[in-house]
Amino acid sequence: MGKRRVPxxxxxxxxxxxxxxxxKTGLVITAGGGGASKxxxxxxxxxxxLQLVGEHQYSASLLHSHDTDTRATMNLAVGDGVIxxxxxxxxxxxxxxxxxxKEGKATAKDVKVSVVSAAGNSTQQGNARRRAGKGDKGGQDxxxxxxxxxxxxxxxxxxxxxxxxxxxxxxxxQDPLQKVVRFSPDLSLLLxxxxxxxxxxxxxxxxxxxxxxxxxxxxxxxxxxxxGNKHLVTVGRDFxxxxxxxxxxxxxxxxxxxxxxxxxKTYRYMACRFGKVEDQKDALRLYTVQxxxxxxxxxPPCYLTKWDSKSFLPMLTAPCGAEVIxxxxxxxxxxxxxLGTVTxxxxxxxxxSLQKLYYVQESHGIVVTDLAFLPDSLKGVKRNIKGNNExxxxxxxxxxxxxxxxxxxxxxxxVWLVLFFCGLMVVGVVxxxxxxxxxxx
Length: 441
Fold this sequence. Notes:
Blueprint: E1 8-11, E2 16-21, E3 28-33, E4 43-53, E5 57-67, E6 73-79, E7 82-87, E8 90-98, H1 101-109, E9 112-116, E10 122-126, E11 159-168, E12 178-183, E13 189-194, E14 198-203, E15 209-214, E16 220-225, E17 232-236, E18 241-245, E19 248-252, E20 267-277, E21 280-292, E22 303-308, E23 314-319, E24 325-330, E25 336-341, E26 346-350, E27 355-360, E28 368-373, E29 389-397, E30 401-408, H2 415-436
Parallel strand pairs: 9-11
Antiparallel strand pairs: 1-30, 2-3, 3-4, 4-5, 6-7, 7-8, 8-11, 9-10, 12-13, 13-14, 14-15, 16-17, 17-18, 18-19, 20-21, 21-22, 22-23, 24-25, 25-26, 26-27, 28-29, 29-30
């Protein structure tokens, strides 16, 4: 399981920071860019058509490139045909759909943008073209004015992207930046976290502000919500991983309770994800990643922890290598975990045992920024995109590359064949015993 080359599925003309897969259509949505600096590197959201070639390989083609003007998209969430994109200190919502060329032009012409503040106020702006400067604010919680929400040049004209709204998701006075965005599992809520340490929650699709609260001292690293919106888990740079019921703190997690040799504040939480339990309908697990707070000459290992989702007690903790983990993903079935590292490596673990199943060292040239498993099935179309693979994981990195990491189905023998060979072995043993010990039977 050493170094080996994984061919690129797609290469963008800009650094890639996030990747998601639309569960209805199977569209691969990836985004990034060069930011506001005048380097000539564009900022865009790319829509890719993923196709299975044979039983184990994939190809991808660009369907549409949506220009995001001067703002790079750093994080994404996708739900019911809507993209929530983190751009600087705002969360930009866009609707996408398949359309003909005429429909695409009409949609771009008639775009209306709802500008929503962090306080929950909403206004409508027709034919919005340009985002206001950072100094144009409607109070501390005022919303940023809309960016260029119209469709950009599209060679195939099969995807239409229209702007819906923007909400100001981070109020850091120095350098506002949204770090994470999620839709709740039932798509009734939109949740964001940023460098100011606040969690902000809006009702979706109305974007009426539900509540916000100070979750961590310093930056929010990650968040996830359990099915039924019962528990919200947040991870911050302040060494804390917290469980919330609404905006009330329920408990703080202690991953090293059963590992007294690891002192407090030598590790910090980096990511958190809820995942299903295979073959157990209502069971749920929480997975977290812990990385060293400081790097030594001899790097200590990172750790994966599996938690019971009712008691929030650690069930299993396992080391996952000395490379610092940068991203975490969980497959739809909850069977597999995907890990990316700051050195560009990609690994797939078995969720039940936290054992490594797949590993490619330095598959990317630099930090892996996001991961996404291919869905087990698509909700909108009858199409198998996993092929004859047990699982397949997409990865993106700052090196502009998108790669697919497939684990072929392990070969297994039919039960009848196993029983047949067992029978032959029993008969063989009996014959040998009769030969060696006449009259034994």
